[in-house]
């Protein structure tokens, strides 16, 4: 089975409520979609959102990389030699991890279809259902408390709280408000998105520990490139510290792990360049005894389906952050993973189990 055609489309879907972090405010979920067709008629799907403040990838750069760099390499290639295909994609250009991830997803979708297996089974099949958290965007303490209550009432028992946008004192007020509103049975994770300085991070986390706010983990408290600072925070507090933006590649994961700079690693396909490299990161972390979370950007259920298949396949992946599709006004995907509250289940169909994707705004193929 060989790759016969690659189509690229854009989609834009409004969010139900603006998504606010220390790095950006998002009103629309915008991404590039990949439809890869094999010579036997099978179709594989991929998606790459433009998260320029994190990955550096815009819609235009993703689209250009796929159309002008990756497609000429891939047409006519045998999907049974998918290692060659994915290696050629990673070697073709520096950067554009999001575009690489979209192509990677489509390849794995097709390969698993050929094998007649759902992708999570093809990759290892450790779990057949997972549970996602739900993210509370940065707003006033009162609004964040109200949002948290609404998500808990909808059945979510793990909340990921965005912080790092304002003074740390205000962040603590936000967490106090949320904890007082949701009680002790709900897990609270914090994500500072690089928004804190090292000393302020240590001071604030210790203060929250002393206040008994019971924070499960703090994600990426300091700048992505400050591995020494990340380690300083990890060493100084009891709360688990998770590396996110500090780890794109297996090499970066190895540095963080060798220096014991974090207790956990957050893997995202848009950072790693897809499932192939994400598996390597997870395997390295597992050898060091460090558990991983798999998360997502503001992606549709297409990309989240691929990430969820990967996450469910591995024992060492113990936390899941896949709420982005639940934030969108429209669902553009037919098939794929299903949500039953916080529980995500997988289709029995082979591959990703995606039957079709409906683009918003009348976007069509550009190649």
TrEMBL record:
Signal peptide: none annotated. CDD domains: L-Ala-DL-Glu_epimerase. The keyword Metal-binding applies. Keywords: Isomerase, Magnesium, Metal-binding. Residues 141-240 form the Mandelate racemase/muconate lactonizing enzyme C-terminal domain. It comes from the Bacteria. Its EC number is 5.1.1.-. This is Dipeptide epimerase.
């Amino acid at each position: 089975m060989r790759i016969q055609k690659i189509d690229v489309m854009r989609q834009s879907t409004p969010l139900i409520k603006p998504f606010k972090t220390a790095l950006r405010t998002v009103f629309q979920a915008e991404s590039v979609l990949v439809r890869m067709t094999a010579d036997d008629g099978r179709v594989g799907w991929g998606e790459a959102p433009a998260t320029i403040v994190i990955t550096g990838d815009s819609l235009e750069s993703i689209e250009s990389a796929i159309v002008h760099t990756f497609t000429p390499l891939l047409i006519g290639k045998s999907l049974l030699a998918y290692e060659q295909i994915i290696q050629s994609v990673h070697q073709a250009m520096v950067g554009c991890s999001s575009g690489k991830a979209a192509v990677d997803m489509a390849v794995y979708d097709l390969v698993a279809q050929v094998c007649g297996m759902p992708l999570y089974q093809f990759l290892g099949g450790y779990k057949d259902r997972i549970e996602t958290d739900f993210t509370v965007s940065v707003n006033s303490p009162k609004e964040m408390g109200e949002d948290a209550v609404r998500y808990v009432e909808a059945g979510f028992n793990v909340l990921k709280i965005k912080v790092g946008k304002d003074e740390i004192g205000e962040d603590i007020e936000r967490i106090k408000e949320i904890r007082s509103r949701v009680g002790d049975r709900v897990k609270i994770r914090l994500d500072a998105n690089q928004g804190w300085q090292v000393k302020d991070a240590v001071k604030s986390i210790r203060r929250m520990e002393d206040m008994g706010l019971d924070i499960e983990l703090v994600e990426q408290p300091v700048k992505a490139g400050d591995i020494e600072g990340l380690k300083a925070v990890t060493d100084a507090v009891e709360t688990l510290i998770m590396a996110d933006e500090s780890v794109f590649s297996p090499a970066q994961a190895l540095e963080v792990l060798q220096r014991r700079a974090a207790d956990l690693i957050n893997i995202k396909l848009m950072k790693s360049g897809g499932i192939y490299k994400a598996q390597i990161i997870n395997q390295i972390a597992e050898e060091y005894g460090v558990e991983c979370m798999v998360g997502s950007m503001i992606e549709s259920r297409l990309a989240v389906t691929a990430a969820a298949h990967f996450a469910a396949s591995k024992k060492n992946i113990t936390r899941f952050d896949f709420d982005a599709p639940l934030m969108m006004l429209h669902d553009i995907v037919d098939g794929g993973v299903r949500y039953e509250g916080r529980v995500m289940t997988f289709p029995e169909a082979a591959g990703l189990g995606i039957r079709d994707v409906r683009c918003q705004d009348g976007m069509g193929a550009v190649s």
